[in-house]
Amino acid sequence: MYTTFKTLHSYWAYLLLVILLLAVFNALFGILKRREYTARDFRIALFALIISHIQFLLGLVLYFISPLFDLWSQGGVMGDAEKRLMLVEHPSINIIALILITIGYSKHKKKVSSTSKFKTVLIFYIIGLVFLLSRIPWDVWPNW
Ligand code: HEM
């Protein structure tokens, strides 16, 4: 079970980063080209939201079944940068990132003009993406 969730979480991270990059560039070009906001743009923003929430759920399960979790009972987590990254910073910063992406999605739906829809997606999704990238365990991932 642990290996399955870790593998799923690890590969799902690629999908999430690709769809978030697509959503950010799509919004950027939508603004630069003063394009009409279409159903396709809406679907990209929605898929990025759904895929990020699935990654959160995979991470949440992984958090409690990973052998890393046992480190809490041994103590010294906050004083160790690597342990603190995986047990505190990675989950918490990613949860903040997901909250920003979710706020951005619901705010952009309420916007009327195409430009303001694109701008809202661009701002919230790019901040979310930067937060995600800041706490990826780059020493173990990508592991190809
Ligand atoms: C939503 C954005 C997230 C992304 C993009 C992400 C990405 C990753 C990546 C790339 C790894 C390394 C996997 C590997 O070693 O091959 C990882 C590990 C891990 N993630 Fe996430 N994660 C996210 C959210 C979360 C959340 C919300 C939690 C917990 C609530 C979480 C818990 C974990 C844990 C515990 C590990 C280490 C598993 C282990 O080595 O035993 N992740 N994550």
Write a concise keyword list for the protein shown above.
mainly alpha; binds protoporphyrin IX containing FE; 144 residues
Overview of this protein structure:
This protein has helices at 2-32, 39-65, 71-74, 81-110, 114-134. Helix content is 78%, strand content 0%. With 144 residues, the protein is mostly helical. The protein has one domain (2-134). The protein is elongated, with a radius of gyration of 17 Å.
Give a short synopsis of this structure:
This protein has 5 helices and no strands.
Q: What is the strand and helix layout of this fold?
A:
Layout: H1 2-32, H2 39-65, H3 71-74, H4 81-110, H5 114-134
Helix pairs in contact: 1-2, 1-5, 2-4, 4-5
The structure holds protoporphyrin IX containing FE.
The site of protoporphyrin IX containing FE has 26 residues, from helix 1, helix 2 and helix 4.
DSSP, total strands: 0
Radius of gyration: 17 Å
| Sequence stretches where pLDDT stays below 50 over 5 or more residues | none
Write down the secondary-structure element order. HHHHH
Q: What small molecules does this complex bind?
A: protoporphyrin IX containing FE
Q: What level of helicity do the residues show?
A: over 70%
Tell me the quaternary state: single chain
